[in-house]
Specification:
It is a single chain. It is built from one helix and five strands, in the order E-E-E-E-H-E. It has about 80 residues and is mainly beta. It has a three-stranded antiparallel sheet.
């Protein structure tokens, strides 16, 4: 199973990093030229936690943001 938050559904995403050179047209140049595009994976801040979901003990992935506002049926066991 992939790393996905069970509360918010967040996981990693793939984004493009674009390298450019040149002077912008607004600054009097001929415009920016793209010299390279590479894919980068951005990871969510996921933590593995043991929780009680409706009274059943499970080990799940939770995002740091989701741990601050958990639904009433999910309780973190331990720290």
């Amino acid at each position: 199973m992939a790393k996905t938050c069970i509360v918010r559904g967040v996981s990693s995403i793939v984004v493009n990093t674009v390298q450019r050179r040149g002077k912008a047209k607004a600054e009097g140049g001929v415009g920016k030229k793209t010299t390279g595009i590479s894919k980068v994976r951005k990871y969510a801040n996921l933590q593995k936690k043991t929780v009680l979901v409706d009274g059943i003990k499970k080990t799940v992935w939770l995002s740091a943001r989701a741990m601050r506002k958990l639904p009433s049926n999910i309780v973190v066991v331990g720290k």
